[in-house]
Amino acid sequence: MAKMVVSFSVVPIGTGSPSVSKYVQRATQVIREMGLKYRTGAGFTDVELDSYAQLAELLQRIERALAEMGAQRILYTIKIDRRFDKELYIEEKVQKAEKI
After folding, report:
1. Which of 24, 31, 81, 93 has its CA 20 to 30 A from that of 3?
2. d(Cα 31, Cα 54) in Å, to the nearest integer?
3. DSSP structure class, residue 72
4. Rounded CA gap, 79 and 9, in Å?
5. Among the entry's GO cellular component annotations, what is one (predicted)?
6. What confidence tens digit (pLDDT) does each residue in 31-87 have?
7. If you ran DSSP here, which 8-state letter would residue 69 be given?
């Protein structure tokens, strides 16, 4: 059950390397630890959430984890699909888009 699907990316800066894969892996681990349904893509990760408070908690946990890995700065890009009339599911959205 989800009220919103959030697509986001986190870009760590000040890591000394152009590679971000280990940071993406750690962010994904945080999502799993929270027990959230998600789907990682080439540039964004989609996650099913119920509230803005849950989103804030997720971002805070990811930020803390990436800071512990040495990130000096993090750029976030966030897109929120919020519905009030029905539940939202990542797989349903993808299936509808791929049908066309």
Report:
1. 24
2. 11
3. S
4. 9
5. cytosol
6. 999 999 999 999 999 999 999 999 999 999 999 999 999 999 999 999 999 988 989
7. T
Contacts of 89 (CB under 8 A, 6+ apart): 2, 5, 37, 48
Domains of the chain, each with CATH number or no CATH: 4-99 (3.30.70.930)
Contact 45, 7 (CB under 8 A): yes
Question: Residue 60: what residue type?
Answer: Q
Residue 100 binned pLDDT confidence (cut-offs 50, 70, 90): low
Residue 28, pLDDT > 70, answer yes
Contacts made by residues 91-100, CB under 8 angstroms, sequence distance 24+: 91/39, 93/5, 94/39
